Amino acid sequence: MPDINLHNVVKNYGGETNAVESLDLQIDDGDFMCLLGPSGCGKTTTVRMIAGLETVTEGRLSIGDRVVDEPRGSRFISPEKRNIGLVFQSYALWPHMSVADNIGYGLKIQKMSSAERVKRVDELTATMGIAKYRDRFPSQLSGGQQQRVALARMLAVNPDLMLLDEPLSNLDSRLRLEMRAELKRIHAEYGATVVFVTHDQWEAMTLATRVAVMNEGVLQQVGSPMDIYDRPVNRFVANFLGVPPMNFIDMTEQTPQAAVVRDFLGRRIEDPAQLGSVGIRPESFTVGLRDLQQPTDCLRLTGRIESVMPTGGSWTVEASIGSQRIYATALQRGPLRAGDDIDLLLGSEQIHAFDLHEHRVEVPA
């Protein structure tokens, strides 16, 4: 399977702002790369440029050792010659064709013999668990079944690359979970290079070998899911990943909570006055009632419980600390009740600090 290399790629649709800005991204052979970000961040435009459905405005895009799009060199290889499989959010199945005919359509275009085509379709319908639906039409299938047909159609032609543009967004939560497991199995079984577009952080966290976070056309950070979660390079990335989202304390304000954090960090970083904010993930807190026994060298925030919200296997605790609301995750509710005084404890390694420009500042343990 080939690598994909985007070098200083720009996409502009004729406006003042670029849809994709100076993108440098290497997608390695066998990667399951998730392009993650909010709507309008440029992730779908990027995958469409890789597919050849959009042209590059500036820069160079290579697949393997072939330059497939470079305006300056007047080079462009059309989509059908890139050996790419693409699955859209809408699945784009032919409504007048049966499941078997939809899956085998690309093989027919490739002039594969009828016998070989039937064999390949049989293999894929069995693999995807849709053999009993092979004679049905798309309108007779559920969303999850249509998704499996779209994936089988893509796999049928043995593409070098698999591009998936938010393919699970139309499914309910249970089917999304099943299809995530199916996609992980397909990636492991076929060893394919996959580029997966999503705005859903949990899809990125559970599926990807690497994640590229984008915002307003600009690449923010690339790394493994846990690298990005544990060490976000800026406040945007930190805030975008996590449910409930990260808590932020504004260090430029003279609030009681900022004073406590400033005093705690003043013993660890050179110039705490240069901090713009600190972030704390809800699950990082140790939660307890007032006068909770404090471990050595630990930050303590004190407040009052506003509400305790069950989320299934855990509880989200909303607490007021001064004028600010802080959210913490507790694995056991225990005696926590609204109106109770509360202590929130954490170590320095669980604090994410950001400077006045919202870039990450390392906090020594």
UniProtKB/TrEMBL annotation:
<dbReference type="InterPro" id="IPR003439">
    <property type="entry name" value="ABC_transporter-like_ATP-bd"/>
</dbReference>
<dbReference type="Pfam" id="PF00005">
    <property type="entry name" value="ABC_tran"/>
</dbReference>
<feature type="domain" description="ABC transporter">
    <location>
        <begin position="4"/>
        <end position="241"/>
    </location>
</feature>
<dbReference type="InterPro" id="IPR047641">
    <property type="entry name" value="ABC_transpr_MalK/UgpC-like"/>
</dbReference>
<dbReference type="GO" id="GO:0005524">
    <property type="term" value="F:ATP binding"/>
</dbReference>
<dbReference type="InterPro" id="IPR008995">
    <property type="entry name" value="Mo/tungstate-bd_C_term_dom"/>
</dbReference>
<dbReference type="GO" id="GO:0055052">
    <property type="term" value="C:ATP-binding cassette (ABC) transporter complex, substrate-binding subunit-containing"/>
</dbReference>
<keyword id="KW-0067">ATP-binding</keyword>
<dbReference type="InterPro" id="IPR027417">
    <property type="entry name" value="P-loop_NTPase"/>
</dbReference>
<dbReference type="InterPro" id="IPR003593">
    <property type="entry name" value="AAA+_ATPase"/>
</dbReference>
<dbReference type="GO" id="GO:0140359">
    <property type="term" value="F:ABC-type transporter activity"/>
</dbReference>
<dbReference type="InterPro" id="IPR017871">
    <property type="entry name" value="ABC_transporter-like_CS"/>
</dbReference>
<dbReference type="InterPro" id="IPR013611">
    <property type="entry name" value="Transp-assoc_OB_typ2"/>
</dbReference>
<dbReference type="GO" id="GO:0016887">
    <property type="term" value="F:ATP hydrolysis activity"/>
</dbReference>
<dbReference type="Pfam" id="PF08402">
    <property type="entry name" value="TOBE_2"/>
</dbReference>
<dbReference type="InterPro" id="IPR012340">
    <property type="entry name" value="NA-bd_OB-fold"/>
</dbReference>
<keyword id="KW-0547">Nucleotide-binding</keyword>
<keyword id="KW-0813">Transport</keyword>
<protein>
    <submittedName>
        <fullName>ABC transporter ATP-binding protein</fullName>
    </submittedName>
</protein>
